[in-house]
Design a protein that fits this description.
alpha+beta, five-stranded antiparallel sheet, 5 strands
């Protein structure tokens, strides 16, 4: 699918399959992630971004929200790469308490993060990304990922290196 992500609100097959798989939080030892079976609407995304930042001048057109953690922090595709499909956009997380960061450089790499037992909230809010590999989540990654398997730690480090100022840039938007 080579549509521009500017207007695309169609959930790609991989996150749709992940949403159907479900997650086991395992009383805090698992992944705290509740994937959606559809992207939030443009209106919902704009409302969320304005609420999160306190900046009423923003719109949410650069984000495709596709899941949340148990506290309401949101995972989204960040449409920062012009004229590239959604699957090639980085995955970001914006927590309910203000933490935010880049989780993976693209959707394929995000699938490997999940397969390694690390969710978007854990990727941003914790320093230990060693995870516990999850064979149930590895299966969709093996079917859909277009990138080679890497550990969550490697994927997260590469994404942070590619987008080192993401958290500061978001902080600068806050009012």
């Amino acid at each position: 699918m080579n549509e521009s992500p500017v207007d695309d609100r169609t959930l790609p097959p991989a996150p749709a399959e992940i949403a159907a798989t479900g997650f086991d939080h395992a009383d805090g030892d698992g992944i705290d992630f509740e994937p959606y079976d559809a992207f939030d609407s443009a209106e919902e995304t704009t409302d969320w971004l304005r609420s999160w930042t306190g900046n009423q001048a923003l719109d949410g057109s650069a984000y495709r929200v596709f899941g949340q953690d148990g506290t309401g922090g949101l995972a989204a595709l960040w449409c920062v790469r012009a004229d590239r499909p959604l699957t090639e956009q980085p995955v970001v997380f914006m927590g309910s308490e203000g933490a935010c960061g880049v989780v993976a450089g693209n959707l394929s790499d995000f699938l490997w993060v999940l397969a390694d037992g690390v969710g978007p909230m854990e990727a941003v809010e914790y320093d230990d990304h060693s995870g516990r590999p999850d064979p149930v989540l590895a299966a969709p990654a093996e079917r859909h990922a277009g990138t080679a398997r890497r550990s969550a730690e490697e994927v997260i480090a590469a994404a942070r290196a590619e987008f080192p100022s993401y958290a500061q840039d978001i902080d600068a938007l806050c009012r």
